[in-house]
Amino acid sequence: MAEFDIWLMLSRSTLIIRIDLAILLAMSLISWAIILMKYIQFRRADRAAAADLRWPGDIQDVHGHVRKPGRHKDSPSTLLALEVFSEFKRLSAMQNHSVDNAPLIMESIRQTTRDEIAAQTDRLFSTLPFLATCANAAPLLGLFGTVWGIMHSFQSFEGLTQRSLAAVAPGMAEALVTTALGLIVAIPATLAHNVLLGRLSGIENKLNRLGARFVRQIEAKVMKERPHADGVATDVRT
What we know:
Blueprint: H1 6-12, H2 15-54, H3 62-66, H4 76-94, H5 102-125, H6 128-154, H7 169-175, H8 177-224
Helix pairs in contact: 2-6, 2-8, 4-5, 4-8, 5-8, 6-7, 6-8
């Protein structure tokens, strides 16, 4: 049996097959780059969120907390804490101690928390759809290349003798390479997409818990300074 030669296959293949293989190769390289990048990004985000949940400090001490050595300033939990604290400081400066505007302040804090969690989740989710696209499109591109290659081989059948059919067989085998490459692209992309979605869900859950804690801390401060406080706590859920 003749040894398979990838370069010989490319030299004999049609332009359509070459384009198909180039697209699949590009999808493979990009998807692996995304997988590695997201793995590192999600690991850092998850560790930072877990550390922030264990942090016993107060929202007003967040600036000192995020400046600790080893902290990633762009981690989702850090950005969430800074955004909520910034909104709290802005509202505190506008607070009128003669008017009971605590409900409005808390509603703004809750909305800011929800918006920032959504923004950080969207940021982490970015580029994941490309993995889903590779998982769905790569097998189809591989199948297209195989069908096209076999059709091209069939065109050479006319006038061939039994002995010369052996010359066409390698071309048909080479056409199957596109299907194999399509699966090589799709399988890792599918697995990585599902695993990363699970990691993202865990990070989002930690951000929700962290945001709820910040809201409770801020509400305690607002209620303490509330004029004519009646001692009744409002709902702290975000």
